[in-house]
Design a protein that fits this description.
The chain is built from 2 helices and no strands. It is mostly helical.
């Protein structure tokens, strides 16, 4: 019984050690997930701030270029009208505006390219922001689910470890009780052993004496038998 209880204690101790190692592993994995989620959040916030500013700047650029185009187009239109009237009046001084008129297409064309660049930058940045936010949300969702599962596993392991420790404690108590009972039995046996030996010796002595008595009786009968035959 004592050997069986000792084996049970050793098995429970090994199980408790394994559970403790797994609990430590799960705690470390949860810590790493928490850290990764925190770092991802910081990066996402910084990226979002940067993208938001870039989108705003690009939008402002588009608006500014559009306004500049409106002003230029109105200016060139007014100068064209003035040039036409002056030509009708045959005022040579207004010929200077011909150069400006020829530059109209180049300036407006350049601004339209700039406007297109701003618009493209705004659209690309908005798309990148949407993609980054989607990836971040997915990462956080998966990480939160994984962390929750590990926490639940850790919680269950702690309960199982507590139960195993309780069972080991009870088994240790049973072993101590068994060892105490065995010790008392051994003490009692040691106390009885001299008496058992004495009884055994006394019994042998009585057997020997009984044998001697039997031999004496046999001898007496033999003597009596001889006397009886001689008298006849």
């Amino acid at each position: 019984e004592a050997n069986k209880l000792t084996a049970e204690i050793e098995g429970l101790t090994a199980t408790i050690q394994d559970m403790g190692a797994n609990i430590d592993r799960l705690l470390e994995e949860q810590r790493q997930l928490t850290q990764a989620m925190s770092e991802a959040t910081k990066l996402r916030e910084a990226e979002h701030k940067e993208n938001t500013q870039a989108i705003a700047d690009a939008g402002a650029g588009v608006d500014a270029v559009k306004q500049a185009l409106i002003v230029l187009k109105e200016f060139y239109a007014s100068q064209a009208d003035a040039s036409f009237l002056q030509r009708r009046r045959q005022v040579p001084e207004m010929a200077a505006y011909k150069g400006m008129q020829s530059a109209k297409g180049g300036v407006i064309g350049m601004l339209e390219v700039i406007e297109s660049d701003f618009a493209r930058l705004k659209a690309e940045t908005e798309a990148a922001e949407t993609q980054a936010q989607s990836e971040y949300d997915r990462f956080m969702e998966v990480s939160a689910g994984t962390k929750k599962a590990k926490h639940e596993e850790e919680f269950k392991l702690k309960l199982d470890k507590d139960q195993a420790e309780f069972e080991r404690e009870q088994t240790e108590k049973d072993l101590r009780t068994t060892q105490q009972e065995l010790a008392r039995a051994n003490d009692y046996f040691e106390q009885l052993k001299p008496a058992c030996l004495e009884v055994h010796v006394n019994w042998e002595e009585r057997v020997a004496k009984r044998q001697e008595e039997i031999e004496a009786l046999k001898q007496a009968w033999a003597i009596l038998d001889r006397k009886s035959k001689s008298q006849e």
